[in-house]
Design brief:
By secondary structure, the chain is mainly α. It has one domain. A two-stranded antiparallel ribbon has the order 1-2. Helix 1 packs parallel to helix 4, helix 6 runs parallel beside helix 9 and helix 9 crosses helix 10. The chain is globular. The chain starts with 32 loop residues before the first helix and ends with a helix.
Length: 321
């Protein structure tokens, strides 16, 4: 779960065979270097990196940095919209501005709003954490404005389960050298991610295992919160940015750009800190890769949701009464 601030076409590699034809996100050659620099620069500008430095120095009002980031990105989007060469990046820049504004300004301000605080008074921890995740959905309404004039389909945005047994292509950082079906790769990831995340949270949060007695009581809220958060983050951090990067960056590069952005968002979240960034970046890359190769969000949403269930329970066991 990102505490501060969740693909599209098939890989343009001849050996990849997917039963349902996809749309090539972009080719590995012929990439405009200026578009590449602007895309990566915008991602870093929209990330939590400026907030990390601001937090460490302790300077400035709590919302000044993210508001400034959103303003810079909004102005940049207007400028590139007037450039024939850079105009394909316009909606991507607006998306980044909205992401920063939604997660770091709008949602926190809503949480501090008097009526919402009054409504939450007396709530148990389960429904209260669900409501905090619900506030992050506010950014979705703004992100939808970036679709105007694009005629995106549900396939363009991966809003379908996808082909769950599609081939997972080998990559240098993965342990297999020939394609294997996602129906085999996905369960392996569930085990690996589950063990790694559990070890990290056990070390960082020091949970009170006596709170496991509340497991059944919290289960409905754990499932609801995890499902909401996973769906929200997958849509905002992967589905929409990747769709807007169509024909701008090579697909592998687009996957890593969105993964790094997602990973950086976890510096203040769970998993947190530098190790949390690394873990979330790898997870974000895997989930984006699953979208591309299966043409849907089934595996990304499923694995993400189960991880968020684990995070929910660790947070519950770490709360001071």
């Amino acid at each position: 779960m990102a505490g501060v601030i969740s693909a599209e076409a098939s890989f343009s590699i001849p050996r990849l065979r997917i039963r349902r034809p996809g749309i090539v996100l972009s080719r590995s050659d012929g990439v405009d270097p200026l578009q590449r620099w602007v895309a990566w620069g915008a991602m870093l500008t929209a990330s939590v990196v400026p907030m990390i430095f601001s937090h460490s120095t302790g300077h400035g009002p709590p919302y000044s940095v993210p508001v400034a980031q959103a303003l810079v990105l909004g102005v940049a989007a207007v400028i590139v919209s007037r450039s024939r060469r850079l105009s394909p990046l316009t909606r991507f820049l607006f998306t980044l501005a909205i992401l920063r504004l939604g997660w770091s300004v709008i949602a926190p301000m809503l949480g501090e709003w008097g009526p919402i605080q009054s409504f939450a008074t007396g709530m148990n921890w389960g429904p209260k954490i669900f409501m905090s995740r619900l506030l992050n959905v506010a950014g979705v309404l703004l992100i939808l404005t970036t679709f105007i004039g694009r005629n995106f389909t549900t396939d363009d945005l991966f809003l379908r389960i996808g082909q769950l047994d599609a081939p997972a292509q080998p990559e240098p950082i993965l342990w297999f050298r020939k394609p294997i079906p996602w129906s085999r790769f996905g369960p392996q990831l569930l085990v690996i991610f589950g063990l790694g995340l559990t070890a990290f949270l056990f070390h960082s949060l020091r949970p009170n295992l006596g709170e496991l007695s509340r497991f059944r009581q919290l289960l409905p809220w754990a499932l609801a919160t995890a499902a909401l958060n996973a769906a929200n983050e997958e849509f905002q951090f992967r589905c929409v940015p990747l769709a807007h990067l169509h024909n701008v960056l090579p697909v592998r590069e687009a996957l890593w750009l969105t993964a790094i952005f997602f990973g950086l968002a976890h510096y203040f979240g769970q998993p947190s800190g530098p190790i949390g960034i690394l873990m979330a970046t790898i997870a974000g890359w895997i989930w984006a890769k699953s979208m591309v190769e299966t043409r849907g969000a089934g595996w990304a949403f499923g694995i993400h949701m189960l991880q968020d269930v684990v995070i929910f329970y660790f947070l519950a066991m770490s709360m001071k009464t």
